[in-house]
Every structure is written in structure tokens, then in C-alpha cells.
Target: Xylose isomerase-like TIM barrel domain-containing protein
Amino acid sequence: MTTRNQLDRLSLNQKTTNSWTLPESVDGCLRAGLQSIGVWREPLAEFGVEAGARLLADSGLRVSSLCRGGFITGEGEAASQAAIAENTAAIKEAAAVGADCLVLVVGGLPAGSRDLPAARGRVAKRLAQLVPIARDHGVQLALEPMHPIYTADRGVLATLGEALDLAEPFAPEEVGVVVDTFHVWWDPQLEAQIARAAGRIASFQVCDWITPLPADTLLARGMMGDGHIDFARALALVDAAGYTGDIEVEIFNADLWAADPDEVVALMKQRYLDCVIGAANDGAVAASDVSGALVGATS
Amino acid sequence: MTTRNQLDRLSLNQKTTNSWTLPESVDGCLRAGLQSIGVWREPLAEFGVEAGARLLADSGLRVSSLCRGGFITGEGEAASQAAIAENTAAIKEAAAVGADCLVLVVGGLPAGSRDLPAARGRVAKRLAQLVPIARDHGVQLALEPMHPIYTADRGVLATLGEALDLAEPFAPEEVGVVVDTFHVWWDPQLEAQIARAAGRIASFQVCDWITPLPADTLLARGMMGDGHIDFARALALVDAAGYTGDIEVEIFNADLWAADPDEVVALMKQRYLDCVIGAANDGAVAASDVSGALVGATS
Model:
């Protein structure tokens, strides 16, 4: 029997139920008995930042993250200024909604460029410019290493180790890291780097690596239990590193987006219990066919 | 003007011209003025190992690699014995054709398993069993780290650093590593790990990372110059590590496979000069539209 307790740390990232507006997401969380939500800037802007901040505060939900800032790899002074301005706006929004952190996806190679070390250098430089702004607003920046499938076009920050190297010059409450199982599960350094991340884990996100990979790599993520990731191991590692925050489920997947969001949330809760929390208890992963059935019924 | 000299190190991996039989590949290399070929076991078996060995010896071509052994992650005694037997056969074939090395793709997670550390442990254990067999046949085993996009279903060995960790207990002439730009280009540790690989680089392979990634990830590789990889940097790094061997072009790509193989070889030569060797000289990458034109004309 599911107790309220077991779902205490579960957070619904808005991307998992992409068709919902911000109020629909808040209502959906409350209906499902969740205590936390990961908010995206686009639906927040659509509803209005001030109104959204009020809605979230009134709901009693925690805001486990605001997604997302970043995209700071552009070349030249104009790109730099635009990136700083955009991220300053994101920092203010994170402060307004009381988000635990602002997730930063750093951006890929600029069009036509093959200079990966230079792009990484710009990330370090602009991060240093953003830290004092975030500090002034009491917002923790959270560097998200992205799976190397996205290095070229989305995130030149490819490993947790690299994220920690970037974060190290700053205080943990200024710059943390995101541990997203989809992005880091393959890393032979995972155990060592999560241990090294102790005190800096700003967000722990879960979703699965499924094969064959869907054709659109941006929508390639799977519901926990549908793929190859050992969530029990990942949770044990962040636990050992002292992380006690929310566990956010963020899934970009066209089939799930086409399904009824309430059913997606129900499935997410079940899989969270079976594959993330349950598996942490007894080592067994329940690989039921519920997602397949859900997708089959709705797509 | 192209001198024969500039193409001295260029090797055609058979996968780049996948429709060619072994004799067609040998003839194609000779017609194109190449001195080296990367051989695959399947077309070699089709022609006959003994006859193939004679054909290759008579051609005067070097065999820069035999692809491939590996797939040593299976669970249980039967899987272990089958893997050792299969790799012993591959080692004998590598010796028969005088290949510089036998490339090992270690294999992914067994069906239904999510235990990545255990799979990696089996790779280490079976590698230790294969080394004496390879030594007896005078064959160097070459561990190929695979892009993390393949960790689940093809190669749990995900980084050059991990490959070097596995190789270190053995002599360099027993266990080397493959540096394939497609698999390693994204790695923030690339410079440090290639330097560490000095004396152990058994094979240097080039092909490009293209976006958007083709739907079939196994055929996602691009002709040099069509994607995001800085080949000049990669070549400079392996040069600095003392690598003087062949530079093998291995491209899995459905469009190129549908094109006339002689035209693919001609394009490969041009791009090798422009993007690999040429770029190493002057820092400029020629991003012509030749592949697009070729593919457009034939598909």
C-alpha cells in the first residue's frame, strides 16, 4: 500500500506533461498528491511570472527547479550580452517562484564552429559573470551535464566531472550540478563523480534510456522501467553523497505527450515507487508493460 | 596538386564501401592509389580466410585493422565460452591477414540487465582470458571505446580513459586502444587521455558527427567535413602522442552505402586531404557540399 510518505520527494517536471499549462500542472500535482513541481519558463511566461509565482505559493507545492537558463556558448560580444540578459531574466524568475535552483543547459557549438574547447571556455567565462547576479537574487545555478549525444547541438558540458570542474571555483550554494540519470548513467566515472558532488547536487532528475533510440533525439527519453537505467544504483549514489532533495521526473517523449496527462502522472507515480524507491529497497526492478499499454491506448 | 605522399597513411575501412566484396574492396583501394585497408570479418569469411589472406598479401596493401572481435559482456558460462571461442577465431583471422590489430567492440548490456558495473567487470575478466591467446598469435587487441549513445546496446566501454584503465595491466603490444573520432570527440578528457594513450594507440579512425542524427543510430556517421568534428585537433593530439600509423576512414551511413563506391572513395580522399591532413596544416576546414551532391545524385 502506498503511503503519502513514499511520494514525499517526487516532483513532476512540467516537461513530462508537456500539454498542461502552469495552472493545469499545479492542479494535476495536487490531484495526484504530489508536493513538488519542476517549472519551465515558457509556460510560466504564458501565465505571467507574477501570477505564476502567486499560484505556486498558494498551492503549497515546492518548486524543485526552474528550467532553464544557459545557452551561453555563442561567439562575440552581442551574443554574450544577449546571453547574460536572458539568464538575468531567468534568475529573477527563479527567485520569483522560489525555485530551489535554476537549471543551466549550456548550449552547443555555434553554427559552423568546430572549436569545442573554445565553446567550453566561453561557458566558464559567462558562468563567472552570472554567479554574482544569481547571488544577488539568492538563486543557485545548477549546471546540467548533457548526454554526449547532445554535445554538438545542445550542451558542450558532457560529464558530471566537467560540471564539477566548472562549479568548483564557486560556493556550493552559488553553483551546483544536476544529476539527470538520462544524461549521466553511462559514465564509468559516475560513482566517483557523484561522491565528489557531495554538497553540490542541486537537482536529481530521473528518466530512462530506451532503445532503439526514437528518431527525434530530443524526445528520446523514456519512463522509468522502460529502458536500461538502474535507478536504484543512481539513487543510492546521490543518497550516499548526502542529497536529500526532491527527485524530479523529466521525460521528453512524444508518445507520453500524446497520452492523457493524468494517466501519465499516475504511471509516473507507480514507476517511481517500483523502479526508483522500490528498487532501492529490494534490488528488484518491476518491468511491467504499463507504459506500452498506456501509449498503445492513446497514440 | 595531390602527391601520392599525402595519401600514404589513408586506409579505407571496408564499412565505408559496404556493398563491395573483399576483392572489390582491394581492387578499389588499388585503383584509388591507397596503400592500406581495414578489413571486416564477414566479407573475409565470405571470400574465404585463406584466399583472402593471399589476396591481401598479393595486393601489397597493409591491413590496418581487422574488425571486429569483442561482444564479451554476456552472462553465464556458456556465453563466456562462446565469446572466447568466437574471439579466438577472430584472433586467428587477424594473424592470417597480417592485421595491425584486432578491433574489439565489447558489447552492450545483456538483454534485460541493468547492471552496467557487472557488464564492465565481465569485459575485464574476458579480456584477461583473451590476451594470452592473442599473444600466442602475435595479434594486438585494440579496445574501442564507443560513443555513450551505444552504451546500452553495443559497447559498455564508453571512454578512452576507461579503455586505458582496462589496457594498463597488459603490455602495449598486447592491448592497445582505438581512437575513433566519432566515438571520442565530445570527451572533455580527450586531450589528457590521448596523451596518456601514448604507445597504445592501435588504430586511429575518422568519421564525422552529423546533426540531426540519422534515425538509425547505427548508421549515424558522416563523411569528414559534413559534421562538427575538428579532425585537425584530433590528428594533432594523436601525433603528439607519437602515433604514426594509418588513418582509417570508417563510415556507417545509408546514403553513402547507396552511392557508387568508387565515388565514395574519391570523396573520402578529397575530404581526407581537406579536413584531416589539410586542416592540420592551415587550420581551415573545407566545408564543401560534395557529399550532399554525391548523395543527392545517387539516392
Remarks:
- Chain A has twelve helices and ten strands.
- Confidence is low (pLDDT under 50) at residues 279-290, 295-299 of chain A.
- The domain at 4-298 of chain A is CATH 3.20.20.150 (TIM Barrel).
